[in-house]
UniProtKB/TrEMBL annotation:
It catalyses: (6S)-NADPHX + ADP = AMP + phosphate + NADPH + H(+); (6R)-NADHX = (6S)-NADHX; (6R)-NADPHX = (6S)-NADPHX; (6S)-NADHX + ADP = AMP + phosphate + NADH + H(+). CDD domains: YXKO-related. This is Bifunctional NAD(P)H-hydrate repair enzyme. Belongs to the NnrD/CARKD family. In the N-terminal section; belongs to the NnrE/AIBP family. Its EC number is 4.2.1.136, 5.1.99.6. GO terms for biological process: metabolite repair; nicotinamide nucleotide metabolic process. It comes from Anaerostipes caccae (strain DSM 14662 / CCUG 47493 / JCM 13470 / NCIMB 13811 / L1-92).
C-alpha cells in the first residue's frame, strides 16, 4: 500500500519532518535531487544535452541540485531559473549559489529545441492558480521543444489535488515524486501528463505519511489481503453470493457477474432472474444456482451478501424487488447499474443494516446527485464523498481512474487498469468480483478497494493477450485466475 496525498497534506508532512523531527530541508532537497539525477542517468546518454528549468520555489531547488549532480557525473547540462530570482526560496538560492561557486552560471539565451532532455521544476504540488506570464511561456516552450521531459514532483501546471490542467501544463515522459503519489498523479488528465511515475523515499517516515495522508493506493503486495483458503473447508466456507440481475433481454449482465464471483473464489453463487434466463445461464454457467423472483425471500436468508441491479431495467417491478431486499435483507448489499438507476428514478432512501456498496459510473452518479456527469467528473473526489455521506455507503466511483470513498476513511485511488476495459460488461464483472469479497467476509470499503484493484490487474493482463482494441469483458474474467494464481494459500503458509 502507498499513501496518496493532496497539496496541504504534503505540506504538513514537510513541516512535521523539518520542524518537529528535525531533518533539515536542505537534507531532504539533496536526497531528492540525488534520486532525480539517478533516474535521469538510467536513461540519458552521456552525449545527450540536458536543460534544467527551475522555478523560484523548492522544486526549482531540486532541479538545480540535480543539475549539479549530473554535472559532477560528466553530463552536459545547462540550467535556467524562470521568474524573479530575488523572490526565490532560501533553499533555491542556496543551490543557485553553490552552482555559482563551482563556476556554473545559468544560461540566459536558450533554444529549448537544442536539448535532448529537459528536467523541469517550475512548480510543485502546491500550485492552485492558472499558469500565466513567463511561466506559461516556459511551459509552452518545453512542450514544443521535442525533447524528452522529466518533471520534479508533478508536471508543472497540474493540480496536485485534482489532476486538472491549470491553464496549461508540462506534458512529461516521466515524473519523480517523493514520499507517496499525489492525487493529481492518479486522476486524469494529470495521470496522462505525468508519464511514468517514480515514487522515491527521501526521509519522510511512514508514520508521518500515514498521519497526514487522506488517501491510499494498492500495489501487488496488497494481493495478500485476499482472504485465504484452508485445507479444512467446504464450499460454504468461501461465501454464498446472491445475485439479483438480468431481464428477458439482458442475460449477459447476470452471467458476467456470476462468473466473475466464482472466478474470485466464491463457494456458491445463486442468480435470481426471470424464468427466461434459466436455460441460458444454466447452460453457459452450470456451476451457478438459479432461482426466479418468487424465490427472493428464501435466497435472502441463504446468502452471505447480495448484488442487486445489473441488467434488470428500471421499472416498478425492479423497485418492488429492491424494496423487498431492503426490508428483508440483512447481509452486505452491493447496488449496481439499474439498482442505482432505480434509487435515483424513484428517490429511494438507503439505510441498509448490513452495509452497502454503490458502484456508479459518472452518469449514474450524476443522476443520484442531481447534477451533470461533467460536474461529477470535474469534482470526482467530492462527488464520491457526497454520495457516500448521503447514502451511508461505500462508493466505487467508476472513471478512467476509479475512486473508492467510504465515509471518513481514506480515499482509495486505483492505479491498475487500461482503456481496453471500456467495453460492455466490464462493470458487471467488477460488481461480481466485489460481491465475492463481501461474501467471503471482507468489510465493504476493503472489499471495494481490493476488488477494483484486482479488476484492473485482470484488465491489464487481458490487454497483454488480446490488445486494448479487442478486449472483451469475458477476457477480464478469464484473466482473474492469472492474477490470483500466484497468491499463496494460507493453508500452506
Amino acid at each position: 500500500m502507498k499513501y496518496v496525498l493532496k497539496n496541504q497534506e504534503m505540506q504538513d508532512v514537510d513541516k512535521e519532518t523539518i520542524q518537529k523531527i528535525g531533518i533539515p530541508g536542505l537534507v531532504l532537497m539533496e536526497r531528492a535531487s540525488e534520486k532525480i539525477a539517478r533516474r535521469l542517468m538510467e536513461t540519458v546518454r552521456k552525449n545527450n544535452r540536458i536543460l534544467s528549468v527551475a522555478g523560484c520555489g523548492n522544486n526549482g531547488g531540486d532541479a538545480l541540485a540535480a543539475a549539479r549532480i549530473l554535472l559532477e557525473e560528466g553530463y552536459s547540462v545547462d540550467f535556467t531559473v524562470v521568474g524573479d530570482l530575488s523572490q526565490a526560496s532560501a533553499d533555491l538560492k542556496t543551490q543557485y549559489d553553490i552552482l555559482a561557486r563551482l563556476g556554473y552560471e545559468q544560461k540566459e539565451e536558450i533554444d529549448y529545441e537544442d536539448y535532448d532532455w529537459i528536467l523541469e521544476g517550475l512548480f510543485g504540488v502546491g500550485l492552485s492558480r492558472e499558469v500565466s506570464g513567463t511561466y506559461r511561456t516556459a511551459v509552452e516552450r518545453i512542450n514544443g521543444s521535442g525533447a524528452k521531459v522529466m518533471s520534479v514532483d508533478i508536471p508543472s501546471g497540474i493540480s496536485g489535488d485534482t489532476g486538472k490542467v491549470l491553464g496549461c501544463a508540462v506534458k512529461s515522459d516521466a515524473t519523480v515524486t517523493f514520499g507517496g503519489p499525489k492525487a493529481g498523479h492518479l486522476l486524469y488528465p494529470g495521470k496522462e501528463y505525468a508519464g511514468r511515475l517514480y515514487v522515491e523515499k527521501i526521509g519522510f517516515f511512514d508514520s508521518v505519511l500515514k498521519k497526514h495522508a487522506g488517501g491510499f493506493t494498492y500495489d501487488r503486495k496488497d494481493l495478500e489481503r485476499l482472504p485465504g483458503r484452508f485445507a479444512d473447508s467446504h464450499k460454504g466456507t468461501y461465501g454464498k453470493v446472491l445475485i439479483i440481475a438480468g431481464n428477458e433481454t439482458m442475460s449477459g449482465a447476470a452471467y458476467f457477474s456470476a462468473k466473475s464471483a466464482l472466478r474470485m473464489g466464491s463457494g456458491l453463487v445463486k442468480v435470481i432472474s426471470c424464468e427466461a434466463n434459466r436455460p441460458i445461464l444454466q447452460s453457459m454457467l452450470p456451476e451457478v444456482l438459479f432461482g426466479t423472483y418468487e424465490d427472493v425471500k428464501d435466497a435472502l436468508e441463504w446468502c452471505d451478501c447480495i448484488l442487486f441491479g445489473p441488467g434488470m431495467g428500471v421499472s416498478e417491478r425492479t423497485k418492488e424487488l429492491l424494496e423487498e431486499v431492503l426490508q428483508r435483507g440483512t447481509k452486505p448489499l452491493l447496488l449496481d447499474a439499474d439498482g442505482l438507476n432505480t434509487v435515483s428514478r424513484y428517490g429511494m432512501e438507503i439505510d441498509h443494516p448490513g452495509g452497502c456498496v454503490f458502484t456508479p459510473h459518472l452518469l449514474e452518479a450524476a443522476r443520484l446527485l442531481g447534477i451533470s456527469a461533467e460536474q461529477v467528473k470535474e469534482t470526482l473526489t467530492d462527488a464520491g464523498q457526497k454520495l457516500s455521506d448521503r447514502f451511508r455507503a461505500t462508493v466505487v466511483l467508476k472513471d478512467a481512474a476509479t475512486l473508492v470513498v467510504s465515509g471518513s476513511r481514506p480515499v482509495y485511488y486505483n492505479s491498475s487498469g487500461n482503456n481496453g476495459m471500456a467495453t460492455g460488461g466490464s462493470g458487471d464483472v467488477l460488481s461480481g468480483m466485489i460481491a465475492s469479497l463481501l461474501g467471503r467476509g471482507m468489510e465493504c470499503s476493503e472489499a471495494a478497494a481490493l476488488g477494483v484493484y484486482i479488476h484492473g490487474l485482470a484488465g491489464d493482463h487481458a490487454a497483454e493477450i488480446s490488445g486494448h482494441n479487442s478486449m472483451l469483458a469475458s477476457d477480464i474474467i478469464e484473466s482473474i485466475s492469472s492474477i490470483l494464481g500466484g497468491i499463496s494459500d494460507e493453508s500452506v503458509l
